[in-house]
Amino acid sequence: MATPTPSTSTPQKHLAAFSSPAPRSVPGMINFDSPAALGLSLEGGVGMGISMSGLSGLGLTGSSMGGRADDDERRRRLEAIIATLRARPGRVSQEGVERLSKRCGLDFSSETQKNGQVIKAIAGKSFILDVTFDADTVERVKFESVYENAAPFSKTAGKTLRKNLSPTPEISRINLTLDRFAHNLERLARMDRLSSQDVSCFEAVSGVYKSLKKLFDYEKQAAKTLINSRSGNIDEKAEREVLSKKSGRPRMNAGECVGLSLEYWMDRRHVLPRLLKTKQKAALDKNHMDVDSDGSDTPSEPESELNKIYSLSIECEPSPATIYQPIRVSDAWISEQVEKPAGDPENMFQGPSIDWLEPPSTYINPPGAEDHHTMNIGADGASNIGSLPNVRFVAKLNPPLVVPLSVAVAIVQSLGNEIPQEAIKATTFVGLALRPGEIDPAAVGLAGETTQEIRSEKNVLVVRKDGHEEEHHHANSLYVPKTEYARALDELPFQHPRQLVEILPTLRQYAFLTSLLQSSFPPPPPPTIPSAPPNSSNPPPLPPSPTLQIDLTLHYAQPTPRLTIHLPHPSSPDTSVSTDPLAAILSPAPLSAPLTVAIDVLANAELLVAEQNIVAAEDGAEADAAAVRRVGRALDLSGDVGVWAEWVWGRHGGDAAGSGAGGAGRQEQGKLADGI
Predict the structure, then answer these.
(1) Which of 203, 359, 423, 624 stands the most exposed, by the fewest C-beta atoms within 10 Å?
(2) Domain residue limits at 157
């Protein structure tokens, strides 16, 4: 078929100038006879030379040109899937322990006994871990270290790891995973890699533990002398006092964590477990007694989640010795007498202070140093002193603690570090501690421009004066009038355990505040699927319980955080949030001013009542100072705003004689009356 030629009857005289010499049945892309030209206008044209970049301009990739993916592409996809699965340690089994050991870079061997049990040996440079299996059930775990001075570390490590591999009441054996065991094994492998023949991270951590334990025992004995001997549970009360107000409680291989933990705060420390209510029960279970009773390091465990513990996990991490003070292997961080002598000039103004010591630096001997000193006995040893280890101490907060940004900067600087500018983000206390899954209020506007408000509802168990129990419904509201930046502290490098003890009062200050608000404003429950409409056969719903509106205002900035609590007065006509405003206005009953108290949370979680109208003044005189202090002590004893609010109501004519929130129940009932 010949190409048509222009004729004289064609309206366009120069059609050949705009036509391709190809047949007209094959439209060209450039003159927009084909829709493919639209793609070129969006993605750019293609050069004369064919290349991978040019093909990508047409929307064609190397993996899609051939239809199915080639072998290399399939291999890459398979490796990505395997890497994702490898990140999860899997379930507790012999094969799972072997895979986990190899992933941590540890040596692994297996030995079958005559009784059918299998011993899985996991070895590093400085420790050996034997896990005995009977089928896929862990029977025993034994931990041994090659360092003699690491005995405190090795003594109970096997028991803790055995607990990691055993099912809990909430988890069945078939669903038991290696997550807890993997966390501890990775920590052991990390410290093993950082250790050398001359410097052992296990010995360094054990030395810090011995010094902190010496300080803890000294302060515990001093605290026991201040506790009434007739009150019972003297050891437990003294431990909790030192834990929450003094230098903290050091524990080796505590709970499910291998290593040294310095516990510095306990929620509701005044609520003792039922196991310690009587001396007889406490004597039957010696494993839950005082830390000094049997030489072990297992004080009484909390009965429930009421006594949540905040701690610092002390480990080692790589760090250049030329930039930061490296670790020192020593147990002489504190003197034998613990406190400085009475004639010390510092004690004249500050009272008794801890007598900290500075251990000498620990060096790594150069290769052949021993042979050199043997051949040159009279030579100067300064030239062969060795090098400092590129390892430093680090304290990891468990759980991470949210503090104001200015406080975080001050804490980090007191430890000889700086927060990088690129690590500072626009985050707030509400976004980090109370609503971490939602958009942070700081992302909405600049600091100080928005008022944050969150709401929550909670049921509180109340014991009436006649002894009957009922649940009261609380509607809580939190207002943060000024947006202030905050930061979550997760790890703090340090040089000397003295530095950790010095920052504990500040950490307790915000640990108490965080715990108090988290208990009143828990995360919102997930959305539920609406149920079917009720049938006529179903019983009618119960009437709603009385609702108490509790309004809280938080001023988070320095010099100290302040929490203001507003409660409706019990003598008001109706304190329910569903009260009709018009009915409240027309009510003949007089309206009483709401109960208000402003509490400053000071260092060491000491509570100071700054303003209040709960304790009335008589005849123009000031309110009773002791009664005002009892208002703050009530919040300290209960550790819960809802329980405290019901107690305040009981003092002002409410029906509640005592209360307990959630699992606290009857343990907190009577505690306010007895302790205040």
Answers:
(1) 423
(2) 94-168+176-194
